[in-house]
Amino acid sequence: MLTAAIGCAATAQAAVVVHIQLSRQVMTVEVDGQTMGNWPVSTARPGYRTPEGTFRPYRLEVMHRSSLYEWTPMPYSIFFDGNYAIHGTGAVGQLGRPVSHGCVRLSPANARALFSWVQAHGAGGTVIEITD
Fold first, then answer.
1. pLDDT tens column, 50-94
2. H helix runs in the chain, sequence order
3. Distance (Å, rounded) from C-alpha 69 to C-alpha 115?
4. The domain spanning residue 77 has which CATH number?
5. What's the pLDDT tens digit per position in 96-120?
6. Both ends of the chain: CA-CA distance in Å?
7. For residue 116, with 0-12 CB atoms within 10 Å meaning exposed, 13-18 middle and 19 or more buried, which class applies?
8. Domain tally for the chain?
9. How far is CA 60 from the centre of its chain?
């Protein structure tokens, strides 16, 4: 995890800033300083964890299938820490509640929009901040 000072500096330089608040199960996305989305998400259910900290994406996949969880489709995957990713889900009725194995799930339409912004600005222009 990066220190707060590094996290603040990275956030100030990023074109895309993704804020995920675990306690509220909400993601806010800013692009070039303008709020583009405030969306419900689902993060880790009890017994699992979603990592907290400041991250940069390291891999994007339009359609990833999880080899860990029965080849479950993970559309618009943005990997940010090991096997953890932000991705779309078909279980949109569960958004707003912690139900995942640790990934950050959001609606496919919102995942597609986020993916396009991250793709356009690159890993160096994107920061993902996950807090309690």
1. 999 999 999 999 998 876 766 688 999 999 999 999 999 999 999
2. 4-13, 108-121
3. 22
4. 2.40.440.10
5. 999 999 999 999 999 999 999 999 9
6. 14
7. exposed
8. 1
9. 11
Determine contact, residues 104/86, Cβ cutoff 8 Å: yes
- What pTM, to 2 d.p., does this model score? 0.88
Residue pointed to by tokens 């489709």: 73
d(CA 116, CA 96) in angstroms, rounded, equals 23
d(CA 57, CA 86): 9
Which amino acid is present at 70?
A: E
Residue 26 structure tokens? 């909400």
In this model, does residue 3 exceed pLDDT 60? no
Domain encompassing residue 102:
4-131
